[in-house]
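Appendix B, Record 12. Input sequence as logged:
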Amino acid sequence: MKRIGVTILIGLFALAVPVTASATTGKAGVTVEPGTRTLDRGVTSINFGKVPWHQVTLPVTLSATLPAGAFVINDYSGATAGWTLSMAVEPFTNGSQSFDGSLTINDVTMRADPTQHGSATLFRSKTSGYWRSPAVTAMITVPVQSNDDYAANVLYTLNNGVAQ
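Logged structural output:
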């Protein structure tokens, strides 16, 4: 019996020893890398139809509707300044002749510029993520001296920051 009593006393003695707490600090971190901002869809062709020559006695304005989603932008850049989508248009040409008409999209009129240095803002947003354009009207003004099939190059540029 003595042996059992000793074992119990040793067990009770071990439980009575005070334990001190220990703490340490560390850090948890994450790096969020910026993504991209892309113009995923732009208008590649606008067909204004045909105009009979006898109607081109004065400048004629023709219109076409661009459907919703004609322009699509995905902005996952992390930039907080937003973006602008601008356009510049070259003169309308048939290969040998040209005219300085104007192109209007989303109520923004751009005169033809052979250098495409002049541009106008079509859309702007400070919201990141997926964006698609609403349905908008496009118009072209055809001057009197025009005769033939004419086309113009249009440059769309996605810029950082929201222009005023």
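The CA atoms of residues 124 and 132 lie 11 Å apart.
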